[in-house]
Write a structure and sequence with these properties.
- With 317 residues, the chain is an alpha/beta fold.
- 44% of the residues lie in helices and 16% in strands.
- The protein has helices at residues 15-23, 43-53, 67-77, 96-107, 147-155, 187-195, 222-225, 228-243, 247-268, 275-297, 303-315; strands at residues 2-8, 30-37, 57-62, 82-85, 91-92, 111-113, 116-120, 142-145, 167-170, 202-205, 210-214.
- α6 packs parallel to α8 and α10 packs across α11 (303-315).
- The longest helix is centred in the C-terminal third of the chain and has 23 residues, at 275-297.
- The termini are far apart.
């Protein structure tokens, strides 16, 4: 059985589409644990309605604690051999779980991942039930990675996404392990960095079946501002990797921290020059100056980072 864990917070406008896509899965042996994380917009009532209509749905209501707290609640009560996390404002193809479970068995993998497809919010209505039933390719590439390859690929932002959605996990990977509630962003990256050392094999299925809707706004919203948390997450991981004597992971985590600094600066360039934004920009430049020379020499780093690091010397010495 697969346990599908769906954290819910104020998603009344999108929740039904998400739940409908999960309950329409061709893989029928599922339990759906929906955790209402203190919603105030009626999302909790929608969750309860689905639980009344489908015995596979179990709902928990709790005070708002963030996505980590909601996922942890789901993990505490999960009964399946496999675990899948789906965000409440996303949808999945009807064969999503069937394909991932099939590849899990075929490769004897511990994690199977489908790439997510980013859809502009303005196109959300296009992804109706009929769209999620469209035939998938008869065959598709797969790629198997070792634990070490998966970790480096995640940190260097190559093939393996660091999000917990768009994956199917063997349940044992979360024994004694939970998502960090102290972080509101990049909590997935931290958790995956604890999970990946436990695996023998991870498989990427190269067919998009998970659809993530991106807001059309280009503003630096509160979530983006909290990307400051990413610095703490990555510095914590760097310290862990130093203790465990894994210098290649340290380098990769530092490269990811540089990416965060560049990205926040890009977002800040569109914002008013408030004192708070200036302070954030200063912090980003401190990270960039400390990390850019190493990035330029790192042959595993993304070309984008290496070129931006070179260019940064023209702006700030």
């Amino acid at each position: 059985m697969i346990t599908v864990i769906i954290p819910v917070y104020n998603a009344a406008a999108y929740l039904s589409a998400c739940l409908d896509s999960v309950l329409a899965q061709t893989y029928r042996d599922i339990e759906v644990i929906v955790v209402d994380d203190g919603s105030t917009d009626g999302s909790g009532d929608i969750c309860d309605d689905y639980a009344c209509r489908d015995a596979r749905v179990t709902v928990f209501h709790q005070p708002n604690g963030g996505p980590s707290a909601a996922r942890n609640k789901g993990l505490e009560t999960a009964g399946g051999e496999y675990i899948s996390f789906i965000d409440c404002d996303d949808v999945v193809h009807e064969r999503y779980l069937e394909v991932l479970a099939g590849e899990m068995v075929r490769h004897q993998a511990d994690i199977v991942q489908s790439p997510y497809q980013i859809i502009p919010e303005s196109k959300r209505s296009d992804y109706c039930h009929a769209r999620l039933q469209q035939p998938l390719p008869g065959s598709y590439p797969t790629k198997a990675l070792t634990s070490n390859e998966a970790m480096l690929s995640m940190l260097y932002q190559q093939d393996m996404a660091d999000s917990s959605p768009c994956k199917l996990f063997r349940r044992f990977l979360f024994e004694g392990l939970r998502f960090p509630v102290v972080y509101r962003v990049y909590e997935d990256l931290y958790a995956m960095a604890q999970v990946y050392p436990r695996i023998q094999c991870m498989v990427r299925v190269d067919v998009p079946m998970y659809f993530y809707f991106k807001q059309d706004s280009g503003t630096l919203n509160s979530l983006s501002i909290r990307r400051n948390d990413a610095f703490e997450v990555l510095e914590t991981l760097e310290a862990q990797f130093m203790v465990t004597g894994q210098p290649e992971y340290v380098r990769a985590a530092r490269e990811r921290r540089l990416s965060v600094a560049f990205n926040i600066l890009r977002l800040l360039s569109r914002q008013p020059h408030t004192d708070a934004n200036k302070a954030m920009a200063h912090r980003c430049w401190q990270h960039i100056k400390a990390l850019r020379s190493e990035s330029i020499r790192d042959t595993h780093a993304r070309l984008k980072n290496r070129l931006t690091s070179l260019f940064s010397y023209l702006l700030v010495r």
